[in-house]
Amino acid sequence: MNETIEETKTNTYSAESIQVLEGLEAVRKRPSMYIGDTGIKGLHHLVWEVVDNSIDEALAGYCTRIDVTINEDNSITVADNGRGIPVDYHAKEKRSALEVVLTVLHAGGKFDKGTYKVSGGLHGVGVSCVNALSSHLKVTVYRDSKIYEQEYTIGTPLYSVREIGTTDRRGTTVEFLPDATIFTVTEYKHETIATRLRELAFLNRGIEITLTDLREKDDEGKPLYDEFYSEGGLKEFVEYLDSTREKLIPEAIYMEGDKGIPVQVALHYNTSYTENVFSYVNNINTIEGGTHVSGFRAALTRTLKNYAEKSGMLEKLKIDISGDDFREGLTAVISVKVAEPQFEGQTKTKLGNSDVAGAVSGIVGDMLSHYLEEHPKEARSIVNKVILAAQARHAARKAREMVQRKNVLGGTGLPGKLADCADSDPGKCELYLVEGDSAGGSAKQGRDRNFQAILPLRGKILNVEKAQEYKIYENEEIKNMITALGVSFGTADGEKALNMEKLRYHKVIIMTDADVDGSHIRTLILTFFFRYMKDLIEKGYLYIAQPPLYLIKKGKEQRYCWTEDDRERVVKELAGGREDSVHIQRYKGLGEMNPEQLWETTMDPGTRSLKQVSIESAAETDHLFSMLMGDEVGPRREFIEKNAKYAKIDI
User: Fold this and answer.
1) Is the Cβ–Cβ distance between 590 and 435 less than 8 Å?
2) Which positions are catalytic?
């Protein structure tokens, strides 16, 4: 007893217990607080922080070109032709201003609105955070006809800022290598960076942005190179997003104004049944919307309804029109520049400034009214689309109610094909969506019944990209998924909403064959979730199972392989690279595996590999799904030809 008391005394909470983290130590101690996570998103966030500095120079009117390079060692170089970070002596910090910017959190010119009226970045941590999380960083400044440089290792300068020559150019170049002891992933994804740079080029017209990837070669053996430039800005952005859809009106409607807050809006109508509104504040993608989106939607509904009523087109319609009806087939991009943005919401990407709603609503209302008056043919096409949407919504509500009423009357309401699990805690439960009854049978036998549920899906589900909403509730496989998950559809604040309060599983796993048909079925299911259950994806509940491609045997030893590289490595290990001395079985279907093999390779949490489905860019994902699953053949053929080198198709 005395020993216990003595031990407690030595662990007292005193002044000596308080740790003071100097400089950038706090960033290295808790990196996720500053960049979100230490996985793939956090890794790419480092690039966004550096590029945002260059974009801010462009917004201030001093930068016209930004060059981004992914180097062979996965380091990143970002060069711009802005003013160059100041290098003169900082009296308060008693060192170069350049070193202050790179080593002190919340240091920079963005807090002085005379330097930057608006700026991107959510947290104000900027390049100093990148410095702290890089094993090596080098900055070169071209300013006042001179060249200056400084290097760092994990945030500590290796020497003071030094002058190394003269120049006739200006700007800043930052090269950094992410610290492999901090990040769980250190390989940059070309497409992720290209998508964001393309987005920035559309949002900031007239700025030339390039991406060079020294790790990859094009068909001519040169480093992979992309150039992004937009003269038309948001109008071109919307037309790019809608390029794979059938147009309802010939070209996008562009609106721009400044009522104390600069506002840019571009919108387009197509013949699809989905709404796609993408919003930005100071180039930040506000995925949860906010006051700028509310102002836009209010103005769109008010203006179109006024026009429709004045034209007499609604006289014979016997059902009410809702805000959703005015946005079916709508693709829009809203961009506002706010001096002091207030963000809220779960991911801090929802704008809360109340004055923005009025500014957006006023500009959109005025300019859209003029457009409708001057383009009566396009106006009638839009209103006719709205009327059809209202009728389809009415039919969809009836179909939805039939599905949900059937669930209530049918007791549990669960599909007959569902093999449910024993546990009822959603946080522990998994639902496997399995292609075919044969694979479903193996999965049911091989699973752990305590927490794993199996729902076999017969054939290919409805392509929701080309179907009206009420049609999805008539599709048996989609109805089974909805009822098995326990979700329902309703409205929240007048908007369509997915109710996940009764969601029965926090892991929904798509498990299809490793062949062309399996890929198609997986894409159909992903399209459904993206269009109708996006919240489930954003919460991180959707996964893709990774069944092995090969089983390789030599004598009594056997190994599973998930990729072609795995196969080559295992053949080398077991037989010195001689394929004729090993037995290689190629799994084309899940049904070829017995229950024990399926459990061991694809379902056992201790050994399986799952891919979590995430949305890196909602705008780019929308464009991809509309291209893959829509009616336009040309863009899809071009995509397949471009990406065919990444696929191995079994004939």
Assistant:
1) yes
2) 435, 513, 515, 517
In Å, what is the CA distance from 180 to each residue of 69, 73, 161, 186?
19, 12, 26, 6
With residues binned 3-state (H G I as helix, E B as strand, rest as coil), the percentages for the chain, rounded to 5, are 40, 25, 35
CA distance 265 to 248: 18
- What confidence score (pLDDT) does residue 70 get? 97
In this prediction, residue 120 carries a pLDDT of: 56
Decide if 615 contacts 621 (C-beta within 8 A).
Answer: yes
Which pair of structure tokens corresponds to residue 590? 């899940």
Return d(Cα 521, Cα 292) in angstroms, integer: 37
What confidence tens digit (pLDDT) does each residue in 268-320 have?
Answer: 999 988 889 999 999 988 888 999 999 999 999 999 999 999 989 888 787 88
Burial of residue 242, with CB atoms counted within 10 A of its CB: 0-12 exposed, 13-18 middle, 19 or more buried = buried
3-class DSSP state for residue 84? coil
Could you tell me whether strands 550-554 and 583-586 are parallel, antiparallel, or unpaired per DSSP bridges? antiparallel
Q: Beta 550-554 vs 507-511: how paired, if at all?
A: unpaired
Is the per-residue pLDDT at 122 higher than 60? no
Sequence-distant (6+) residues with CB within 8 A of 339 are 113, 117, 118
- Based on the fold, state whether residues 372 and 310 are members of the same structural domain: yes
DSSP conformation class of 613: P
Residue ending a domain, among 392, 416, 450, is 392
Q: Residue 134: inside a domain, yes or no?
A: yes
Together in a domain, 251 and 178: no
Bridge partners (DSSP) listed for residue 226: 211
Q: Is residue 241 part of a domain?
A: yes
The answer to whether residues 216 and 223 touch, using CB atoms and an 8 Å cutoff, is yes
* Dihedral angle computed from the Cα positions of residues 176, 177, 182 and 188, in that order, rounded to the nearest 10 degrees: 100
Output DSSP code: residue 253.
E
Give the separation between CA 239 and CA 249, rounded to whole angstroms: 11
**Whole domain around residue 162: which residue ranges?**
25-228
Average pLDDT, the chain: 85
Residue 473: predicted pLDDT: 82
What's the token pair of residue 301?
């509904």
Q: Both 224 and 260 in a single domain?
A: no
Angle between helices 618-629 and 190-203 (to 10 degrees): 110
Confidence check: pLDDT of 237 > 80: yes
Q: What are 524's two structure tokens? A: 């159909």
Burial of 267 (0-12, 13-18, 19+ CB in 10 A): buried
Q: How many CB atoms lie within 10 A of CB 411?
A: 7
pTM of the model: 0.76
Kindly report the number of other CB atoms within 10 A of residue 378's CB atom.
Answer: 17
pLDDT of 8 > 60? The answer is no
Dist CA 164 CA 200 (whole Å): 33
Helix 234-241 / helix 618-629 crossing angle, nearest 10 deg: 40
